[in-house]
What does this fold into?
Amino acid sequence: MTTRREVPGIRPYDGPAGGWGALRATAQAVRLQMESIKAPITLLRTNQPDGFDCPGCAWPDKEHKSTFQFCENGAKAVTWEATTKRVGPEFFENNTVSSLLQRSDFELEDLGRLTHPLVYDRTTDKFRAVAWDDAFARIGEVLRGLSSPDEAEFYTSGRASNEAAYLFQLFAREYGTNNFPDCSNMCHEPTSVGLPRSIGIGKGTVSLDDFDATELILSIGHNPGTNHPRMMGTLHECSRRNVPIIVFNPLRERALERFADPQSMIEMATFGSTRIASTYFQVDAGGDAAALKGIMKALLAMDAEQGNTVLDHEFIATHTQGFEALAADLEATSWEDIEKASGLSREDLEQVAIAYAKSNATIVTYGMGVTQHNKGTATVRLIADLLLLRGNIGKPGAGICPLRGHSNVQGNRTVGITEKPSATFLKQIEEVFGFEPPAAHGHDAVQAMQAMIAGTAKALICLGGNFAVALPDSGQSFPAMGKLDLSVHLGTKLNRSHLLVAKETYVLPVLGRTELDIQASGQQSITVEDSMSMVHASSGKLTPASEHLRSEPAIVAGIATATLPDSKVAWKELIADYDKVRDLIEQTVPGFEAFNERIRTPGGFRMPLPPTERVWPTPSGKAIFSVYGGVQEDADVLGAENVLRLITLRSHDQYNTTIYALDDRYRGVFGRRDVLFMNEDDLAEQGLEHGDLVDIETITSSGRQLRLENITAIAYNIAKGSVGAYYPEANVLVPLDYLDKESGTPSYKSVPVHVLRSAET
Ligand SMILES: Nc1nc2c(c(=O)[nH]1)N[C@H]1C(S)=C(S)[C@@H](COP(=O)(O)OP(=O)(O)OC[C@H]3O[C@@H](n4cnc5c(=O)[nH]c(N)nc54)[C@H](O)[C@@H]3O)O[C@H]1N2
Ligand SMILES: Nc1nc2c(c(=O)[nH]1)N[C@H]1C(S)=C(S)[C@@H](COP(=O)(O)OP(=O)(O)OC[C@H]3O[C@@H](n4cnc5c(=O)[nH]c(N)nc54)[C@H](O)[C@@H]3O)O[C@H]1N2
Ligand SMILES: [Mo]
It folds into this structure.
């Protein structure tokens, strides 16, 4: 390799993921945020039977009663919330909103926990403390004054508990709208839309036990070392059993190559590590559909050659429909197109087909690398097709495993956060509560922002999240926040969306998941549903960050009572005892029978998943194969010259729009985030060198100019033609209308861009 110039903050990382580096980073997170005496106790309570659910990710724990599972990024999430830093009225007295907007996302949240309810005062350009009841009264007044309930948008972050989310949707539906933009719309919506069409339910079908019995794992488009760190323990165990793990990812992610388990005394003592991927395919960004079609095409060819012994024909005949159409489409798709679109060779894909044919039980895991694409829903369905071909759904050790994002994003959907509610759910609401909920479909996240840009949305109530920063095209999304009459944010820490003030803005500080929640009947717990449909209780243990905080359910109830004086819901009683909220969930949502009883057993219970028993809740009662048609997610822009595919991704030190620190250790980036990962050949073709300053420009169909300037291009092991930059900074480059039409999810991971040398300054 040629010697490269030194670029500040860029140093190759040669070790395995995990190991001592992870332990050091955990200690560092604790030191920066917490008193060292409290920290170990707090961390030990994470994911324990009587403790709180880790706010980090939705990966399950073995029955939620195992010994403490070490996880660096879980520790960061917990210490971020349990920090001793505070930001109170005095600080806001001394700082205008305009001045705060100059601070970085990292600096804003690093101010610490919010302590008082705040209202924006336009005359001083400052936030000041406000009494809870005054805030509720005014919010209620504005909401009652809108000319239609559909002028309000109700956003939910996947962090919200089942109880808070259920009350939130109940309030908004009684108020009169189905406008429920939620973070799922930016995340796993292709799963929620695609899987019901294929297998009848929009959730994964595997449990942790299946990983004990699996013979092959295909891991597509997710980065567990950073985003689902507790999954690394599972992958580590599988690898030690010699289960092949075939990875598809344009970037070489260290944790998918080698991992040292901090729980393993031997690996820690010997500085050893375990391979994770048995084979690593650097598929092109957006090339997964082509790759999946290639594997299936090879599989069908093998089946024909080997006397129909490769596919599970009995399963296909008994349990599925649409096989012929899939087979015909695969026949019509040429290897040439597959190779070109995937960036992988026919031989490679045939090898995967051989491994797949050999395995008696296969799991496919996938994340944002699959969903955040123009044809995300269609690609999710191809994953289901691949599994169905060999009967890999509804048998031990096999199944589909979408890696959910937020710790309760799946639960929110289950309890009614959806802009497209089913008729049965609405009927249940009407029967139990005696009001008629609206039936017309509401806005998802992108549509909500489009309505704000158009000026037709007037109020935005956010149950958590950083709405404007998470959405694409900041150049339009940021100013749209200012057009609103009212914005209300329930949050733990200050973020940019709070500062993009509307005519009136309230920031309402909430109790975090780690904190004690005491209501009239005593200490409360909430519930969450993990990626594998396990529902369990979570109870905070820490003293709240401030005596003025309220719980999310209590704040929702406060706003609801002020907005709907004649509400049919007994808000006060529900808040006094969350068991009563759960009783209502039980009465209105299927699968929650004996809810309160079952969450009192350690580990909780599993929501019904009919496909695990080969029951397919589709209209025909069968699992349904899909036809993708072609291999490209969008053929239009590919003809243009020098087009690169921009992937926007998370660093190791970030939680969505929350930036914990500026390092991305496993990718060798330290103290900075203004970089563009590029393949060496792409650098050379563009006449660039490692360390050069570049501007990135999106190729849009609308003619809108989307540009990010003065980013440092760095040579990286990434598929040729694909480039990578950090979210949320790169959101200025993502077009708002460039999305998967079936699910509405933005194509955050395949933005067509030009990369140009920055003008000399
Ligand atoms: N610590 C931490 N944990 C988190 C989060 C966090 O920000 N920080 N966020 C939470 C949330 S909300 C979510 S949704 C999840 C996200 O978890 P992931 O799904 O892991 O999300 P990303 O980091 O955005 O990207 C995942 C991977 O997709 C790859 N990729 C990009 N494009 C493609 C492609 O076209 N094909 C393939 N095969 N791969 C591709 C990228 O290289 C990257 O390795 O994590 C959750 N957990
Ligand atoms: N370019 C690009 N954009 C993306 C993505 C991408 O990969 N690329 N990923 C998308 C995905 S998958 C997602 S899920 C979104 C998420 O994006 P975000 O909206 O950023 O997600 P959150 O982590 O929910 O929001 C962070 C905020 O939640 C608040 N918060 C933290 N804990 C609590 C709590 O307990 N209660 C309340 N009420 N508030 C709390 C804090 O104030 C914090 O500022 O971003 C999407 N945007
Ligand atoms: Mo997400």
